[in-house]
Amino acid sequence: MSGREGGKRVVAGFHAVTARLRHAPESIEALYVDSSRRDGRMQQLLDRADAAGVRATAADATRLQRLAGGSNHQGVVALCRELALARSLDDLLGQVDPGTLLLLLDGVTDPRNLGACMRTAEAAGAQGVIVPRDRSASLTPVVAAAAAGAAESLPLIAVTNLARAMDEIRDAGIWIVGAAAEAERSLYEVDLSGPVAWALGAEGPGLRRLTRDKCDVLARIPLAGQIESLNVSVATGVCLFETLRQRACAARSTVR
To answer: 184, exposed or middle or buried, with CB in 10 Å at 0-12, 13-18, 19+?
Structure first.
């Protein structure tokens, strides 16, 4: 989870603090831990902090709760400098290369779904998640908790007009693939080996018509059971990791 305290970013909870210790320990200016916890999970975090040169300060429940602003801190709160993540679509598009992988989410308003999608995208090595400023969840403590630390290393970019942003993404040389249940081709039949941006909508309504029309190609996830759709975070995992699979296969072919 995250917030603000005295101009610093507040990172709370084991997942988020561990992610910051792993990726940018130098950004942690103060680390507070529950003085009453002596369990293995806390010891593991303290060992990681010690190895990273970050000093932990014991704090009581009242102070931790005040620092965390009411969020579920699990006995761990860090005050950190902001990381230099991409802050705009221009930042992301200024770093396009053959391995670029982006995630566009259209109409995902449930904060836990957004957080889960961010967690999956970060695990797949995506460079950013792009959402419309309206009709979308934003980076709240609930989203950060569901992202399980991914919000510390993965930019979430909110754009005023998603359709216009998709034009810019395409102009940057990125192939936009939309996930749609009614698409003729499955994702296994689409070439995902180059720079790709996957566009997914919320479970049920899916992609809006204009968003769908802006995609270069639509692809479906073949379902063998009786259900008609997947949760958006599950669908995100299928799409992004199929992209990684194809790229790995292409790399092996090149080596041969």
So the answer is: exposed
